[in-house]
């Protein structure tokens, strides 16, 4: 068993009255006394919460197989990493192997964060690292990476290649599925032999052969024309390919990773993508959300990108106002756009150790200047005026409303920070003192400690 820092990442939930003695020797289990399926159903929500915690993996041991397959599916959908029945033969060996596998995944996830730059502190970022690590531990499983344009699909694919120890020393190849069609596709993907067609003066390795035992990324697989999807399906079914003009079949040795910004399959809408090909590609999915859904990651990503473009990769610090501007800015181009902002900022920094507001591109700063007239919704003012309140009370109410809105906004952008720190940020952004913030809210001074 690994050290405490590793074991904290795994929770064992035993569903039943009395766990076996050997379980305590592996890890301290959480005992859930459920004697029937109804009792188990009541525990599913808490298991779901536990499984979604930072870096946490959940192994559920059911004391009896009477719970059946439905219970297993529900538990897995709620975030359980593994579900094992206590009355299985060699249950202890299964659990031991499962713990070791999960610890391996945890170590890979740490490596992705600290060494390879797959950074972020949001739940989504942690889930991405966990999914990449899991994919690396399942060396031959096809992987489907989905996400909007610019969300970092190729970067994630390369990270997966680098942590897949069985393939990292072999080639990493990217094949653009939308750039070729017909005979050109066959030649570029499968390769060809000399004389296969006019102009084929020598043998050529295709993408699938040049990847060797490494990783082949099928970029924008959703753009693959329908008439070529059958050819791709045949390769994935048989795990063999034949170069154009050749009589020989060759084994596919590389791992197949697909990437797309499209919805390949929708139960409610007919798509042009073949279901049978989709199911072959979707062995393990890694979903990359847009930056607007993980705003708390933006400063961390920006810092990592800055250090990439600064000479000698010097460590940098972001001014707190810079963090707020980045979090509140719009990045429709996602990570790709953020990377461009980081590149421009790195080229214009005055102090190579600290990023200040003047270092940011002018367009980014100008885009965040607020229109004072829109600071408080017009309807709020109209309601206050309609009540025939004195002007000072209207001004006070509007000020309170603006302060509350800013605190709520910063709270969403910085969900892990204490209320005291959020109020400090709000005061700085509004250009008032912290005491004024408290007075606007409720007329009281701040108390000590976390709020």
Keywords:
alpha/beta, 15 strands, Rossmann fold, globular, about 450 residues, 4 domains, Helicase, Ruva Protein, domain 3, 5-stranded parallel sheet, about 45% helix
Furnish the topology, listing elements before pairings.
Layout: H1 4-7, E1 10-15, H2 21-26, E2 30-32, H3 37-51, E3 57-62, H4 68-77, E4 82-85, H5 91-114, H6 123-137, E5 143-146, H7 153-163, E6 172-176, H8 182-190, E7 191-192, E8 204-205, H9 207-210, E9 215-219, H10 226-238, E10 240-241, E11 250-251, E12 255-260, H11 275-281, E13 284-287, H12 298-309, E14 317-318, H13 320-328, H14 334-348, E15 354-355, H15 362-366, H16 378-386, H17 391-413, H18 419-430, H19 434-441
Parallel strand pairs: 1-2, 1-3, 3-4, 5-12, 5-13, 6-9, 9-12, 14-15
Antiparallel strand pairs: 7-8, 10-11
Helix pairs in contact: 3-4, 5-6, 6-7, 10-11, 12-14, 16-17, 17-18, 18-19
Largest sheet: 5 strands, parallel
Radius of gyration: 27 Å
Identify the CATH architecture of the largest domain: 3-Layer(aba) Sandwich
Which stretches are low in confidence, meaning pLDDT under 50 for 5 or more residues running? 1-8, 369-376, 443-451
Just give the CATH class of the largest domain: Alpha Beta
What is the β-strand count?
Answer: 15
What separation lies between the terminal Cα atoms?
38 Å
